[in-house]
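Progress note, sequence design subtask.
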């Protein structure tokens, strides 16, 4: 029997893409397409919810789905470590429901973040520059936040990165001590550069998404995993063995 999927935020860029991928993937059927301002009750009857709304709505979507025993794949930014911890406490011990939080569905982006985490132990000076299309409402991006948090975890025993003059607004927003600079530009889809400064050298780990097609493989992976997920899982990396 096909898994019935409700897409919340279906009228947005990612919502339209997710809906198309669901329709084209064997074993899944599109049960509901709901606008970010739509009634959450429209997801009832689905086996799996995909949330691609906006930061101000996503928590309500997830909490409603979990309360009704529906698994969720979250592709919306705004899930900080604190918010994720609160979600984990809410569903602790409930093996009947699962939430996958996927800051980025691009396999290439996830690999770049993994490489950055590996490099974090070897450089004291680290900064992130991320660029997205002008219509993206949140900054920093969820991918940049996730990258910075993983860098911070990798450096837990080494301490914070060197970030001089961090009190100046032009120095970006610090996430886990890593300065993050956000660009919102026409003509850009998604790009992230992580700069590592060392004695006599600079390492740059760069990833750019040039077409929304880059997200399709990750969406399919998340759909398959979402069927049987339990608890809270953060990151596509956990689903591809990184």
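Output:
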């Amino acid at each position: 029997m096909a898994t019935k999927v409700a897409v919340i935020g279906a009228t947005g860029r990612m919502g339209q893409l997710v809906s198309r991928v669901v329709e084209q993937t064997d074993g899944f059927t599109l049960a509901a397409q709901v606008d970010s301002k739509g009634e959450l009750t429209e997801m009832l009857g689905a086996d799996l919810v995909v949330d691609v709304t906006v930061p101000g709505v996503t928590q309500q979507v997830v909490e409603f789905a979990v309360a009704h025993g529906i698994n969720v794949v979250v592709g919306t930014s705004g899930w900080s470590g604190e918010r994720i911890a609160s979600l984990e406490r809410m569903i602790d011990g409930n093996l009947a429901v699962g939430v996958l939080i996927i800051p980025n569905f691009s396999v290439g982006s996830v690999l770049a973040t993994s490489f950055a985490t590996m490099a974090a132990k070897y450089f004291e000076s680290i900064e992130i520059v991320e660029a997205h299309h002008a219509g993206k409402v949140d900054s920093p991006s969820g991918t940049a936040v996730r990258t910075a948090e993983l860098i911070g975890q990798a450096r837990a025993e080494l301490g914070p990165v060197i970030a001089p003059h961090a009190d100046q607004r032009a120095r970006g927003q610090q996430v886990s001590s890593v300065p993050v600079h956000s660009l919102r530009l026409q003509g850009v889809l998604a790009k992230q550069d992580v700069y590592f400064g060392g004695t006599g050298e600079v390492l740059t780990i760069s990833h750019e998404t040039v077409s929304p097609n880059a997200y399709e493989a990750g969406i399919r992976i998340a759909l398959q995993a979402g069927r049987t997920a339990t608890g809270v899982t953060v990151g596509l990396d956990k689903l591809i063995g990184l």
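The mean pLDDT is 94. Work on this subtask will continue into the next period as scheduled.
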